[in-house]
Amino acid sequence: MSLTDRTNGANGSSGTKSSPPPAGIYVPVPTFFAKEGSASYDAVTPPLDLETQSEHSLFLVKGGIRGLVILGSTGEAIFLRSKERNELIASQRKTLDEAGYKDRPIIAGTATQQIDDTLQMIKESKEAGAEYAMVLGPGYFAPSTSQQGIQKWFEAVADKSVLPVMM
Question: Does domain 3-166 sit in CATH 3.10.310.10?
Fold first, then answer.
């Protein structure tokens, strides 16, 4: 059975077959931080710039983008605390909804190295407003990890996830 054929706990109902996001273009969205010189700037851990983030998200969807991949592959996600991740997703869901784009899905990057941590991040992402979770596999070290082990890792996440899982 392939992962795309698996049923998972998507939308909180265990055993429900998940469906792919609507057809269209989805883009990885960079995370915006306070600019140097701004009142809220901190050189060690700059806070999120949610105003610029929202402006950029609206620019993308007004240009025809079908959905946003937030905290996915642009690299900033590993530097954010859970509270910041959730605040970012929730703010963009609210921005899209208030601008009349309730039909534009958010795919949340939920990459961690542990199954339980990944599932917790997926749960929090759903609570913040994401409709899909993008999962990366754990670090791969050939001498100690088999292809079957990696497949089982993805299956364990997909089977217990509260959101449809994308790889």
Answer: no
Q: Look at the pTM and tell me if it is higher than 0.70.
A: yes
For residue 134, list its beta bridge partners: 109, 166
Euclidean distance between CA atoms 114 and 138, whole angstroms: 7
Q: Give the integer Cα–Cα distance in Å for 28 and 20.
A: 17
- Ordered mean pLDDT values, 10 residues apiece, the chain (167 residues): 44 59 95 87 87 98 97 81 96 98 96 91 98 87 76 93 93
Three-point CA angle 107, 29, 58, nearest 5°: 90
What type of residue is 74? T
Tokens at residue 40, please?
A: 């809220």
